[in-house]
Structure formats: C-alpha cells, structure tokens
Write a sequence for this structure.
C-alpha cells in the first residue's frame, strides 16, 4: 500500500461511514481495484475507522463537553448518556457473541451486494410512508426508544446494511424526527465504532507492523477530514430532504457488485477473515 492508496481509502471511509450507503460496500470496490494483503487490510481498517469516529468528537465537541460537565447535575445530560449506553448494549452483546461468524461468513461481496439492494428498497419504501415524529430531541427519548434503535443497529452487523442507515431509518420508524435520528446515529457511533475497533485490535494485535504506521496515519487523517465534511453536509441535508436518493444509489451499487461478482471480479478475495 502506498500513500495515494491510503489517501483514496481514507476518503472512501470518511465519505460513506455516516451516510446510509454502507462504507463496507464502497471499500470492497476500492480494495478489489487496488489489491491488498488480508493482514494489511485488517490493520488499515482499524486506523481509518478511528479517523472517521474522531470526526464525531470534533464536530460535536461543544455538545459532548456540555453533556460531560452536566453529568450527575443535569437530568438532560444524564438521560443523554443513558440513551446512548442503552442503545449500544445490544450491538456490544451480539457483536462479541457472533464476531467470528460475522467476520468469517458474512463478509463476502455477494452478501454485501444483496444487503445494499434490499436496504435501498427498504429506504425507498419507508420514505414513501408518512410517519409523524414524536420525539424531537435525544434527551427526550425513553429507555425503550433507545433499546429499539439499538436493536435496529444490530441489523447492520450484516455487512452492506449500513450502521447509519439502520439506526437512522430505525429511529424514524420508532418515532424520532429525521434530525434527531440522524444525530443519535452519530453519537451512537462513538461507543459502537470505538468498541468494535478496540475488539479488532485485541483480536489482531499480532499483525501490527511498525513499518506501516506512516501510511496508516495518512488513512486516519484523510478519513477524519472527509468524514467531518460529510457529517456537516448530512446535517444540513436531512433538514430539507429525504433519503430516497441514497436508496436508489444503494440499489445501483449493489447491482454493480453482483454483476462484477458474476464476472469473477471478486474471486479469491478474502478481506475480512
């Protein structure tokens, strides 16, 4: 892997991690075109995911600081943290329980492609329905609301579903406003992605190579800045638009992957075991 390839993959991760299009699906295309060793890809994924999640800390630093200093004193801060923790628990439990199955069985181009298409159809169907939001702020969510969104996030353990797509659409389905569901998805990404990254480091500690760190850092910072831009744009986008365009895009990308898979383009790919 060279610096340009690290830059490209960092951009792909940052641009797609927080919108409902599946960063995994896009990385499959990029990695298959560039070609990497399995172990090299495992380590690089950890770095670019950390870069993407770091953008949430930066983008919402004022909100997070306000919640932090209000813990134990402000009911709104306490409820905010409780909601995030409760929503995180289902994916933490099932993620550890089914880690090997997810990595060894579900991570394949055809699984991702199928999930992309089905997810796109669901998004388009959902946006044609009229749901009246009942909850307009994360602090107003109940524990049951949080648990429901957390369970919806578990669907994203199937690669190609999109963690952000599952939590945003799931949140709206369970009564959150579009903006609240999107923001909750961002904040829920903090423990979810950090937890997944830490667990990946634990499981793959033996494959880290000191010689690759400069390239990995390029991916980290590229993912950070591209994700930061994406988050800011998405916040403005959801206040005026639906997610239908993402649904159609997912279907197109999924069909593209299926065609390439049938042509043998992904034959022999083992990116995730």
């Amino acid at each position: 892997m060279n610096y340009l390839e690290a830059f490209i993959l960092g951009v792909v991760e940052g641009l797609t991690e927080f919108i409902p299009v599946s960063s995994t699906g896009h990385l499959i295309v990029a990695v298959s075109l560039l070609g990497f060793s399995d172990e090299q890809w495992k380590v690089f994924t950890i770095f670019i995911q950390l870069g993407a999640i770091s953008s949430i800390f930066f983008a919402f630093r004022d909100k997070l600081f306000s919640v932090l200093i209000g813990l134990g004193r402000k009911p709104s801060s306490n409820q905010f943290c409780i909601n995030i923790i409760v929503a995180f628990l289902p994916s933490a439990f099932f993620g550890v329980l089914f880690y090997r199955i997810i990595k060894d069985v579900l991570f394949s181009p055809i699984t991702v492609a199928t999930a992309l298409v089905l997810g796109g159809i669901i998004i388009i169907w959902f946006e044609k329905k009229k749901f009246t939001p009942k909850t307009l702020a994360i602090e107003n969510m109940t524990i049951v609301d949080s648990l429901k969104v957390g369970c919806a996030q578990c669907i994203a353990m199937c690669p190609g579903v999109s963690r952000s797509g599952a939590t945003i659409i799931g949140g709206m389905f369970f009564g959150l406003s579009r903006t609240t569901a999107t923001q909750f998805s961002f904040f829920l990404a903090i423990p979810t992605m950090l937890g997944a990254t830490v667990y990946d480091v634990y499981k793959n500690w033996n494959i880290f190579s000191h010689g690759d760190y400069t390239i990995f850092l390029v991916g980290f910072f590229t993912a950070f800045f591209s994700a930061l831009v994406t988050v800011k744009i998405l916040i403005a986008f959801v206040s005026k638009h639906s997610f239908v365009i993402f649904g159609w895009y997912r279907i197109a990308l999924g069909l593209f992957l299926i065609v390439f898979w049938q042509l043998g383009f992904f034959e022999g790919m083992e990116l995730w075991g």
